[in-house]
Amino acid sequence: MNWKASISILAIIFSLTSCVTNKELTYFGEKETDEALIEQSIRMNEKPYRVQVGDLLSISIKSTDKRLVAMFQPVAAENAAGIQSEQSLYYNGFTVSKHGNIEIPILGKMNVLAYTLDEIEESVKKKLLDEYFNKAEDLFIVVKLAGLRFTVTGEVVNTGIYTLFQDRVNIIEALASAGDITTVGNRKDVLIIRQYPQGQKIHHIDLTSVDAFDSPYYYIQPNDMIYVKPLKQKSLGTGTTLVQSITTVVTVLSLVTSVLVLSRNL
Questions:
Q1: What is the DSSP code (8-state) at residue 46?
Q2: Where is the Polysaccharide export protein N-terminal domain (predicted)?
Q3: What is the spatial distance between Cα 114 and Cα 111, in angstroms, rounded to a whole number?
Q4: Is 246 in a helix, a strand, or coil?
């Protein structure tokens, strides 16, 4: 083996052992962007969520007539702060059926598919006023998603199924729940697998670019699955930091040197 071949081998080694760059680890890029444009993009993406099949709704009915309210609402276990547990919400919430309906005691079935939460509130309130209650001021309705449930898997610190009790959750908050992306996770191409009436669809978002704020997938939806692919550095088993890369190079150099010495002695 001559010196030219050795140089070629070393060049290949250096290309394979390149560490993960700061650019690959930085969210939303390093270029200057008008903050006003970013805020505008986020506001444009904040469209009201429309209910889908499989969603779990929490419907709270309050009135001065406690006895009448009890007819329409199941008794739910609450903690000392008056907050229902996730398990309690699962058993006492209202699941949207495959036909897009929920069934409220006494009121019966109501179609809520593709409705916003505000629209469902108005529908429930109107039906109660038309058939049971007398005064609008005596009736208060609150409809919320019973937790926003999603799955995070791939190159994150803690994979798993998470539930956040918020009206809106962006992808950064979702990833933070899983401990964030690891140093060998691909932030440039994060996959979001979303549920639709026709089935599942895969979407892509680049979290290293400020264009992520413009993405319709910046805000996640119930039952989304977020998958973070590994960078090539992991699949090759090479260093992810400069120190690790140098260690790998030194190890391989020692191997090449040994091979050269042995080949000359043969």
A1: -
A2: 46-135
A3: 9
A4: helix
Give SS3 for 190. Answer: strand
* Structure token pair of residue 194: 């979303």
Domains delineated in the chain: 3-20+235-265 (no CATH), 22-47+148-230 (3.10.560.10), 56-145 (3.30.1950.10)
Residue 99: exposure state from Cβ atoms within 10 A (0-12, 13-18, ≥19)? exposed
Per-residue pLDDT of 154-192, as tens digits, reads 999 999 999 998 888 999 999 999 999 999 999 999 999
d(CA 244, CA 250): 10
| Among 78, 45, 77, CA closest to 213 | 45
**How far is Cα 132 from Cα 126, in angstroms, rounded to an integer?**
10
* CA end-to-end span of the chain: 11
- Asked if residues 65 and 138 have their Cβ atoms less than 8 Å apart, the reply is yes
Residue pair 64/129 in contact (Cβ under 8 Å)? The answer is no
The DSSP code sequence of 174-187 is: HHHHTT-B-TTEEE
At 137-160, the pLDDT tens digits run 678 999 999 889 999 999 999 999
Buried b (16+ CB within 10 A) or exposed e, 214-243: ebebbbbbbbbbbbbbebebbeeebbbeee
Secondary structure letter of residue 251 according to DSSP: H
